[in-house]
Write a structure and sequence with these properties.
The protein has a six-stranded antiparallel beta sheet with strand order 3-2-7-8-9-10. Strand 5 and strand 6 (84-85) form a beta hairpin. The chain contains three helices and ten strands. The protein has one domain. The chain has helices at residues 2-17, 27-36, 112-116, and strands at residues 24-25, 42-45, 59-60, 64-67, 77-81, 84-85, 91-94, 109-111, 126-128, 144-145.
């Protein structure tokens, strides 16, 4: 019996690690995200709690939408980038200089949940994403945690 309970508890813990943390957010959080995600900035998706080995290849923001998937629920705003719903906990943004819509080359990618005030656990504050475009075999991306300030 104890073995069955232990297995059930382990299953719940592993499911929680993969659960959406900041997929549905409050209206104020969604508005902050929309203001930060300006056209032309770069985004990378990296779900550390899910076991992702590498972040996605960075892509440019061309469109941001805030949707209401389930009216009547307290956390019912969902952010979409280029038509794809994202979890802010696993979305990293390379910001530009103050007031600029151009990403700063070499700047780290910052976690969107941390930037907009959505509580997220098990994710880095910042990462760097390096991709090779040389058609050679081998690792194409390398996440690297940036030391906290």
């Amino acid at each position: 019996m104890k073995l069955v309970l232990a297995a059930a508890a382990l299953a719940l813990v592993s499911t929680a690690a993969r659960a959406d943390q900041c997929q549905w957010v409050e209206d104020t959080v969604a508005r902050k995200a929309r203001l930060l995600l300006r056209r032309g900035l770069e985004v990378s998706i990296y779900c550390e709690p899910c076991g992702d080995k590498y972040p996605s290849r960075p892509f440019k923001v061309s469109q941001v939408q805030v949707n209401t998937p389930d009216p009547g629920q307290p956390y019912t705003q969902e952010v979409s980038i280029n038509g794809i719903e994202v979890d802010l906990a696993y979305t990293f943004l390379r910001r530009g200089k103050q007031g600029s819509g151009v990403p700063t080359p070499g700047a780290p990618f910052e976690n969107m949940a941390k930037l907009v005030g959505c509580p997220a656990s098990g994710v880095s504050d910042k990462i760097t994403v390096e991709y090779r475009d040389d058609n050679r075999k081998g690792r194409k991306s390398r996440p690297r945690r940036v030391p906290r300030d």
